[in-house]
Amino acid sequence: MPKGKGRRLDGRRALVTGAGSGIGEAVAKRLSADGARVFGVDLQGEVDRIADVTGSGINADLVSEAAAEMGGIDIVVPCAGITGFMPLEAHDDQFMHRVFEVNVFAVLRLIRDALPYLKKSEAGRIVTIGSTTSRFGDEGLTAYGASKHAVLGMTRSIAAEVGKFGITANCLQPGAIDTPMTAPAFTEMPEFKEFWQNKAALGRLGQPEDIADVVAFLCSDDARFMSGQGFFVDGGAMQRH
Prior knowledge:
This protein is about 40% helix and about 15% strand. It is globular, with a radius of gyration of 17 Å. It is of the alpha/beta class. The chain starts with 12 loop residues before the first strand and ends in an 8-residue tail after the last strand.
């Protein structure tokens, strides 16, 4: 049943990676504002744990540390991610492996290692961060687009497996968001920034808070019957050609 009075995430315990900046930071702040206790992880910034989520065994350690500090885990939001704009010919093996290690395998490990705690929760929630590139391919983003499409497929499969435990799993697919990760590309290629501003029906780039607000909704009881879905949060960009 929906929660009564009070903030809608009161008492929930959330593990958020990439929480030092951009979307992850906005998510951590929004979940906290809605009453959740948040354990934030990043390579930098004001977070609970400085860590590289791609390290061997690191996710199991992070999950255990977060669960011990918060007394359990109800929400997992893996926001750590990387991108890179370059022609396909420049996609060497090292670059491709790094993109998939951060954007796919680290996400899968984190969710896998958090699952025992989510099973004990009365309202387990998993929210992953994909991309509109699952539907709209873009020049120079082959590895990134492939990795984010993998996240969408992963999330749907996880949702099918964990539903019997009352856990939901959904994937947000942001459009062009103004973050420290995208800023260099927008600065170096003003035409790229202009393209995405014009492509969005709302006529602007997204802000991290635009994504965080939807994450908070999906973590709440209001979204208790929504699972296995990919949600475009792109200002209407996918509606325009």
